[in-house]
């Protein structure tokens, strides 16, 4: 959870930066066996924000450990954050009790992220091989989807849309925003559900915006992603598409940041941090999956917005995967892989801030493989449903140019439909749209769930069930 002082002024008092690189409990130097490494970027570039921070391209070779013990994994060094000392005093607005204000008052430390635009990156060979394997699996997934779903003259659009929606749902679940496939489809159709369904639809829009700007990831377009995410929210619409002007932190009380697991940079540092991040994203000399992982971790460290940082940060992953040509047609469910082990993901973000990118690179490698494997299974399931639906429609005495055939693939993308929706997407009259729906209903593809003559709604239940089963599989695992 991200706490902010959104309705109260920031804490006052002076601050000072701690000297040297950050060292936190539990992070100790460990002996390692010599390993092969791969270096990327300028070997002389440190990208640090403090003279004492270590360079990112120096691999430490230590004496071998006892032969009976396996060597610990070689770290992937990145410049750690600095900590800045501040004093926090909660606003005396009557919102908190005197006791709560006293407990929340005192010294806290916010982060000052290192600059990464020009860092050299050394990836141990075992990790580099793992990342390469995961990358190839994502490429194969994208190709498999294009081949599987375009068979028989189909278009990729509906499948691409349902995968994007699946990824948006998984990304939202990481933030504890859960919604079933039926409610999400109904909210997308007519905005009738509200609550979490509306928030997840906002995430779908943010993902669509991210992919639209995939080949031009600048600050303005990242702000546009955030605007798409929260612009429809009454609570956040005034702050949508704007960098924060207040302090934010992760965990503990909203009364103050003391004891938080992560206190983001001071708001006046955000624009420079984001400019540096965009420069890093623009590089073309790094392995793509590793670059995505580090860009995402840096974005989450900056936490540039009042709310929605996690969802925009994960949309950024897909914009990079698409823009750099790794997954040109599909949206692999990477967030499903992260959701598979969220504790590992949050621990990896902490390790990144402490100067070791290996855990976040490993996390992304695992998430990519999980996305490729389970995403392929979902593609095959949806494709099989569509094949069976086509067989059912073949059983009717329909002309080859009947509107039902045009509507059929669209019920994968939008498995809850009404006549206005069908008329709009097919570009036909309401009467023609009604005939198309009737054809799919007579074939047993669509089932009416509304009753009555007004506000009629139909579902493709097997698609909805497949999407819910996929979400449940992730939850169980």
UniProtKB/TrEMBL annotation:
<feature type="compositionally biased region" description="Low complexity">
    <location>
        <begin position="41"/>
        <end position="51"/>
    </location>
</feature>
<feature type="binding site">
    <location>
        <begin position="307"/>
        <end position="314"/>
    </location>
    <ligand>
        <name>ATP</name>
    </ligand>
</feature>
<protein>
    <submittedName>
        <fullName>Filamentation induced by cAMP protein fic</fullName>
    </submittedName>
</protein>
<dbReference type="InterPro" id="IPR003812">
    <property type="entry name" value="Fido"/>
</dbReference>
<dbReference type="InterPro" id="IPR036597">
    <property type="entry name" value="Fido-like_dom_sf"/>
</dbReference>
<feature type="domain" description="Fido">
    <location>
        <begin position="217"/>
        <end position="366"/>
    </location>
</feature>
<feature type="region of interest" description="Disordered">
    <location>
        <begin position="1"/>
        <end position="51"/>
    </location>
</feature>
<dbReference type="GO" id="GO:0005524">
    <property type="term" value="F:ATP binding"/>
</dbReference>
<feature type="active site">
    <location>
        <position position="303"/>
    </location>
</feature>
<keyword id="KW-0547">Nucleotide-binding</keyword>
<keyword id="KW-0067">ATP-binding</keyword>
<dbReference type="Pfam" id="PF02661">
    <property type="entry name" value="Fic"/>
</dbReference>
<dbReference type="InterPro" id="IPR040198">
    <property type="entry name" value="Fido_containing"/>
</dbReference>
<feature type="compositionally biased region" description="Polar residues">
    <location>
        <begin position="29"/>
        <end position="38"/>
    </location>
</feature>
<feature type="binding site">
    <location>
        <begin position="250"/>
        <end position="262"/>
    </location>
    <ligand>
        <name>ATP</name>
    </ligand>
</feature>
<dbReference type="InterPro" id="IPR036390">
    <property type="entry name" value="WH_DNA-bd_sf"/>
</dbReference>
């Amino acid at each position: 959870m991200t706490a902010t002082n959104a309705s109260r002024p920031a804490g006052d008092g002076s601050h000072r930066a701690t000297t040297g690189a950050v060292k936190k409990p539990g992070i100790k130097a460990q002996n390692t066996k010599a390993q092969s490494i791969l270096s990327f970027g300028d070997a002389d570039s440190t990208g640090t924000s403090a003279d004492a921070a270590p360079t990112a391209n120096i691999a430490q070779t230590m004496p071998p450990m006892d032969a009976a013990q396996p060597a610990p994994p070689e770290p992937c060094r990145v410049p750690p954050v600095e900590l800045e000392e501040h004093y926090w005093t909660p606003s005396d607005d009557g919102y908190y009790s005197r006791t709560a204000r006293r407990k929340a008052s005192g010294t806290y430390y916010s982060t000052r992220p290192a600059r990464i635009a020009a860092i050299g990156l050394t990836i141990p060979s075992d990790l580099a091989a793992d990342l390469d394997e995961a990358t190839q699996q994502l490429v194969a997934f994208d190709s498999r989807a294009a081949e599987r779903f375009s068979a028989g003259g189909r278009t990729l659009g509906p499948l691409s849309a349902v995968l994007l929606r699946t990824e948006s749902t998984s990304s939202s679940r990481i933030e504890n925003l859960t919604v079933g496939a039926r409610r999400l489809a109904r909210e997308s159709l007519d905005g009738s559900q509200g609550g979490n369904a509306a928030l997840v639809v906002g995430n779908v829009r943010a993902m669509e915006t991210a992919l639209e700007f995939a080949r031009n990831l600048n600050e303005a377009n990242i702000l546009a992603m955030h605007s798409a995410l929260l612009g429809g929210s009454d609570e956040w619409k005034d702050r949508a598409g704007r960098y924060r002007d207040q302090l934010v932190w992760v965990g503990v009380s909203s009364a103050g940041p003391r004891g938080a697991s992560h206190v983001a940079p001071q708001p006046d540092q955000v624009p420079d941090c984001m400019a540096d991040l965009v420069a890093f994203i623009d590089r073309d000399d790094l392995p793509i999956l590793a670059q995505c992982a580090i860009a995402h971790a840096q974005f989450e460290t900056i936490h540039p917005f009042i709310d929605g940082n996690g969802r925009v940060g994960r949309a950024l992953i897909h914009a990079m995967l698409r823009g750099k040509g790794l997954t040109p047609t599909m949206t692999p469910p990477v967030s499903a892989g992260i959701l598979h082990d969220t504790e590992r993901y949050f621990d990896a973000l902490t390790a990144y801030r402490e100067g070791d990118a290996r855990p976040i690179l490993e996390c992304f490698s695992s998430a990519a493989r999980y996305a490729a494997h389970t995403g392929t299974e979902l593609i095959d399931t949806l494709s099989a449903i569509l094949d069976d639906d086509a067989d059912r429609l073949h059983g009717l005495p329909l002309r080859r140019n009947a509107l039902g055939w045009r509507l059929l693939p669209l019920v994968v993308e939008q498995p809850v439909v009404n006549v206005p929706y069908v008329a709009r997407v097919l570009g036909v009259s309401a009467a023609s749209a009604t005939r198309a729906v009737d054809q799919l209903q007579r074939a047993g593809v669509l089932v009416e769930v509304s009753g009555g003559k007004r506000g009629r709604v139909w579902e493709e239940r097997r698609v909805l069930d497949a999407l819910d089963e996929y979400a449940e599989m992730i939850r169980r695992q």
